[in-house]
Design goal:
The structure holds two protein chains of two kinds. By secondary structure, chain A is of the alpha/beta class. Helix content of chain A is about 50%, strand content about 15%. Chain A has a ten-stranded mixed beta sheet with strand order 3-4-5-2-1-6-11-8-12-7, sandwiched between helices. In chain A, strands 10-9-13 form a three-stranded mixed beta sheet, with no helix packed on it. Chain B has a domain of about 70 residues. Chain B contains 22 helices and two strands. In chain B, helix 13 packs antiparallel against helix 14 and helix 16 packs parallel to helix 18. Chain B is elongated, with a radius of gyration of 33 Å. Chain B starts with a strand and ends with a helix. The relative contact order of chain B is 0.04. Classes of the chains: A alpha/beta, B mainly alpha. At the A-B interface, helix 1, helix 2, helix 6 and helix 13 of A face helix 2, helix 5, helix 8, helix 12 and helix 22 of B.
Amino acid sequence: MLNLLLLFYGYIIFFYSLALITSYVALLIMAYIYSSNYKRWSDDYIKHMVDSTPYVPGVSIVAPAYNEEKTVVDNVRSLLRQDYPNFEIVIVNDGSKDRTLETLIENFDMVEVPYDYIERIHCKPFKRLFRSSSMKYSKLVVVDKMNGGTKADAVNGGLNVVSNPYFINTDVDCILSKDAIYHCIFPVLLDDSVIAVSGTMSMSNGATIENGEIVELSTSTKPIPLFQDLEYKRSFLIGKMGWSCINAMNNVSGGYGLFKLEIVIAAGGYGSESFAEDMDMLFRMIGYCCDFNRPYRVVQIPHNCCWTEGPSNIKTLVRQRSRWGRGLIQLVFQHSRMLLNPKYRKLGMLTFPYTFLFEFLAPVIEVVGICLIIYLALTGGVNWDTFFVMFGAIFLFSIMLSSFVVFYDYLLGSSYHKQHSYALLLLAGVLEPVLYHPIVVYSSIRGYYNYLTRKKAVWGDMNRQGVKKKKRA
Amino acid sequence: MFSHVEGPIVEFHGWEVIGYYLNNIQNYLAEYSWQVRTAYGLIVGCIFVMIILFGLFILMIRKTTKYKKEYQQLEEKFREPLYQIMILPEPPSVQEIEGLMGCNFTELKRYDSAMFAQLISSLRMELCEVLYIPNMQYICKITGVTDYIERCLTGRTKVFEILQMVVNLNIRISEGELAIYLNHYNTNIRLMARLAYIICTENEPYKYLEEDLNQKMLPWRPMLTHRLFGWLQECGRPMPSFIVIAESLNNEEASAFLIEEVAYWGTDTEKNELSKFFLAPRYIIRLAAMRATAQLAREANEPALVESYDHQPEYIKREVLKTVLAINSGKQLDFYEMAYKTTSSKETQEQALSCLYMYGNEGRRRFEMIRSRYQVGEETRTLLDQIDATNLLKQLQQFS
């Protein structure tokens, strides 16, 4: 009986792996088709068109800040540098315990103004609103609210005061490229049914920053950020871009994404209780569009718009990924009605089942597989020749996929200033499956366990190392 | 050639060689299960793909580095002279151009036209308003960019990118080159070709405009068409009859766009006609007419605008209030007060009070009178304070 079960499990794993490999190849091809078509639009042309017309839609950048007094000034300056004719920046001080608010007031000539606040979406109570008395910072608005404990609550607070039809959800510690809004608004101009646009994100751990702007970009030489850089590139350039080709994206990153305000509000805003608030938001937006039979498109663009500092040590990484794992299992339970439900179109019939099978179940299957291999090894039940062939095939495929991503990144033009970065990424591609991947699997399982045992969730600090800053002469 | 251990020598040719090796592999793997064979296949496939990938990667890096180097050289040599020529207020002579460029026209043709196109495009972006378009067109001609564009269009290479360049750089090419793209099956290429057609022909430039506008109006279309109209006016080319076309269209978004364009490029007669749309059956047309009136700050249209107020839904009422403020005739204080008192919408109330605040000294006085009726802490008082503070701050920003 046990042998039969093992055989059956072996077959499942084999077909599961084949299906995963096939899906990656399909995504790779779709990503290539999509980005090749998209890249036919000239950047010069887009900018020129947007610059010289009165019809350009306004965009608000919403960035929550919690205990960011050390970095908030540089980061807000970086956000203010956006090269777009019609935008505002809404910084939400989410009940910071340090001097974040005071620092903003002092450095940007902020003045408290009476504000007739209307709570369009729920969040913790609003306290005050500040605007700058200086023309230089006239695009800046600071909202002071009670701490809600999650980013989602803070973003909701910001959404209650924004004045534009589109908004960008980002973190105050993210560094945006100067033309980030241009690139993100363009898909909306091409198709008014676009409800969300995801910009490509990268790690800023190895970058050199001057006055809130990246002056030299290279990958981090530390292993954890390097692996994450490769992981991000794979996720954005192949996963998201591939799904975008057939309008089946399931997530727009919480680090950087443009959204249609009307749809976000209609869907009830960000879920304050969610641990994967970005994915949850998109699920609800698409759910709303499907429920009310509205056309929608979610788009990934092949431009690097945002750099974020990722965890630089294993402890922080495990904490972050456990939270993501917890968010994923929460999302699967919360939106289970969408799973295999044709009403929710491609999300319900394709992307959600894919997420369930290859993202949600993958860590469980991997852990069970490893346990079985150990058991069989101890009982002498492993055919090692076959094992090494199978392992080699999966391992080589993973390296090939990483090589594709690196090549593709170069092809798309988001190149590093130094070419040794590519060599580092290729090396990371070789080491990642054996060094980094097990940590991610462990973290996800921990997240699932925490959720199922209802362990109290702690967000924790990111413990940022900070990016390199160029010294002024 | 293959020799059996004990037997005749067999010669293989062409596909037989591949067949031989495939057969060998098949025989070698025959004793393994199909799962292992699949895994072997995957390994071989991955190795094969990676070899190709690395080869491509190296080639790509070399190609990009070479292109960047050559472009840099071109940029260093010609950026400044091209810049100078493009901002000259009138067409320069051949000698002047040769003097500035430091070489004659024949020498210029030796450089890569695609690189010149990239350089001119980046200069066009930089110069925007101060640019003298005929000079840019002339430069495109002498640097071979125009020929390059025509070559690409004839050879059907990078058609969409090239058409964007034509529209972006306002290059005039022969109508014949565009002919096959004017009714192209690909919507993007077709629309771009038709925009290029407006630039390139003086015969009947707006031949396709009406047909295009009747199709679904994507947001980038009005943006691009607006810019094109601007270019046409700069070059002294006649404009289409906005209102005539607007009235003939079935697509209300396109009609609204054309009515709004009257404010920028319309004739006086068309501007006078705007008021007739304040009570048009379609709300989007009303909005467009009001926005155009606001842009023009046309006092002659004010009575009709105010009269239409009671017949508008709330969101258009707010547009009426904004338009009256843009006209700023100073005669509508009572109108604003009435709007504030009679509306059921808080947003309209806020708009009316905000406009009243900005409606000159008398408007400000009336605003203060209204404010004095409310106690601090009351909801309406907060709204009034917000309007006051926001406007004061705007004034402060202007002085800072």
